Description:
D-Amino Acid Oxidase, Chain A, domain 2
Amino acid sequence: MSNPKLTVAIIGGGIGGLSFAVALLKARNDVVIDIYEAGETFSELGAGLNLWPRVLEVLHSFGLEDELYKYAGPPGLYKKMKFMKADQPEGIYWGEAPANMHGIHRADFLKVFVNHTTTGCTSHFSKKLLSYEDAAGRPVTLKFADGTTATCDLLVGADGVKSAVRSNMYSQIADEMEKAGRPSDVVQSMKNCMKPIWAGSIIYRQLIPREVLEKAFPDHVALDNPTFFQGKSKFLITYPISKGRWVNCAAIVARHDQYGSTYEGSWAVRVTNDVLAEEYANWDPAATTLIHLMDSPIRWVMNTVEYLPTYASGRVAILGDAAHAMTTYQAAGAMQAVEVTVTRTFRSRKSLTEGARTASFSRLC
Length: 365
Ligand SMILES: Cc1cc2nc3c(=O)[nH]c(=O)nc-3n(C[C@H](O)[C@H](O)[C@H](O)COP(=O)(O)OP(=O)(O)OC[C@H]3O[C@@H](n4cnc5c(N)ncnc54)[C@H](O)[C@@H]3O)c2cc1C
């Protein structure tokens, strides 16, 4: 009789969870993968994503880069990345760099992975994980908000910055430390890892259609160049996405003194333009034109997590924003989710053996 397959449950069908599923499917043929997603379908907000060259190498190794180019266009599409000190009526261009990046609509990037999880994975929607139990001698048990349960051999939390998996994992680690008589400040530092923290910044995001910007400001620098408009504790970053069909705009207002606090209130709401226009009044016209065209931006609260001492405990691991959510200043969070999980999955390829069913998660990652 053949050995039963190893069952892996992935919580969260965002870029991190789906890229991990694709990596695992490519690495092994002896696993059963279940993806549990809280939403009704796999989806991403209507905004752009910047991809740096390293992730293109990862997609190349999967044979997925042509699919990416179908949505984002081929490499070398954009001219230079430009930098302007822009918080004055006549800004100063002070530098430029090679624009070795790819701008893609987030939903399109997700599609690249969704297309490759239709066979080999079972996707379950409207399944919001509340908690899990990882008791010796039994499979890991998952409890969902709809009252149902499921089991698996290994659990992967790819459920974003608010991660229920991370919260449960660090609650259990803190309990174990408390029982072992560890000092209260050490126990508290584990509890601090459960919740996200506010990075002190607010981001306003909107896609502007290319023809709208062309009409308002012919030959605008942002049409063909990723551009940084900079000021003190504020900046506007733009880059073309989807073969230049849109200009992705993100205007950031930072309150560095608030870093580490908890933001009370909604994290993502659509707002009117007035607050934003006031923040960027008297900037260079190249910047204010974009700001005015962002007529109904999504106001996004930038949250992150404490530096975590571990990403795995027992038969459970976390990845992506659940593990290392970061501020958006380097436009790299999603890329890190893909790169870290994919390279680790492949590195572990030879070390995962038939006995993994009872092994700790560290053998897989
Ligand atoms: C304004 C902004 C701009 C950014 N720009 C860039 C950029 O240009 N380049 C870049 O690389 N990164 C960028 N990032 C970062 C990037 O968006 C994240 O790092 C990335 O989306 C993380 O992917 P993830 O799959 O780990 O988490 P998420 O995208 O948050 O996905 C988590 C998934 O889990 C599901 N889920 C949540 N809780 C549960 C639960 N309890 N049970 C079941 N399912 C659950 C959610 O519905 C979601 O589908 C940006 C972030 C922000 C906020």
